[in-house]
Amino acid sequence: MKSICIYGAPMDLGQKRRGVDMGPSAIRYAGLQDRLAKLGYNVTDHGNISVPVLEQIEPNPLDERAYNAHAIGQICTSIHDHMLQVITDGSIGICLGGDHSIALGTVAAALDRPQKVGVLWIDAHGDFNTPETSPSGNVHGMVVAALMGKCPPALTVGNQRLRPDQIVFIGIRDLDPEEKRAMREAGVKVFTMRDIDENGMATVVSAALNALGNVDVLHVSLDMDALDPRHAPGVGTPVPGGLTYREAHLLLEMLADDGRTRTLDIVEVNPILDNNNRTARIAVELAASLFGQRIL
Q: Rounded to an integer, what distance in angstroms lies between the CA atom of residue 167 and that of residue 190?
């Protein structure tokens, strides 16, 4: 029986809208552990990784253009260490956010494994800003750039840096002007919502996996704002025109067919902005699709 280890990372330090720190609880309440156990997995929930609340953090003058960067870096180092232990033990790892800055730790852990790793970044946003280009200074919008070593040392976690050919973006529809330029210059593979509209999700998923090439394992980083707000209203930065319910499920079902996913982030669930925990419930349904639930 395959094992799944769940950790919560209740962090809301990477952005200024409060509430995503309650995301892990919302997803657990929606029944994640039971849903995965019914698919035949041995599921262990290890609780939450320690994260201080904003009011406990001493301001750091070096964080002026990347708010809470030093605290986020320290927390993500802990996330990295916990997830790397899961990977080393041969289990599947799921980390529940929190804002998307938790992926500084989870992706770094995936990159530190001995196998060849590909990353699927499912998101409305590119998260490719740096402190110099970010209009907001919010670290959750700098994560991929930081993973590539383009941000200050405080946001550098793990031993390996992400290469442009190791990541594919799906569902992108909201980029800052400097972010667009940086992504074009980096040469990362991006499938926008227009690509999905024109070609269909099945074609996009096949092209994304082909672009990653002959990797051994996949890390899936699922930001719930990738979905259209009609389906997933409880997110901090909703953007109209996102994935439909069925497009999101097809994406995860095809990744299940592929069979290489070993680590997963589910981030940016904000229960304060949600409707009857709807977004967390959809997150659980999508996780189930990724790990083998079938219609027939």
A: 9
Does 295 map to a domain?
no
Summarize pLDDT for 94-149 with one digit per residue, the tens.
999 999 999 999 999 999 999 999 999 999 999 999 999 999 999 999 999 999 99
> How many structural domains compose the chain?
1
Per-residue pLDDT tens over the stretch 259-277: 999 999 999 999 999 999 9
For residue 245, give its domain range: 3-290
CATH code of residue 147: 3.40.800.10
Q: Chain-centre distance of CA 258, in angstroms?
A: 19
Amino acid at 154: A
The predicted-structure confidence for 145-161, as pLDDT tens digits, reads as follows 999 999 999 999 999 99
> Can you spell out the DSSP letters for the chain?
--EEEEEEE---TTSSSTTGGGHHHHHHHTTHHHHHHTTT-EEEEEEEPP---GGGPPP-GGGTTSTTHHHHHHHHHHHHHHHHHHHHTT-EEEEEESSGGGHHHHHHHHHTSSS-EEEEEE-SB-----TTT-SS--GGGSHHHHHTT-S-GGG--SS-PPPGGGEEEEEE-B--HHHHHHHHHHT-EEEEHHHHHHH-HHHHHHHHHHHH-S-SEEEEEEEGGGB-TTT---BSS--SS-B-HHHHHHHHHHHHHH--EEEEEEE-B-GGG-STTHHHHHHHHHHHHHTT----
Active-site residues, by number, are 100, 123, 125, 127, 140, 223, 225, 268
In a domain, 271, yes or no: yes
How far apart, in whole angstroms, are the C-alpha atoms of residue 219 and residue 163?
14
- In terms of residues, how long is the chain? 296
Establish if 120 belongs to a structural domain.
Answer: yes
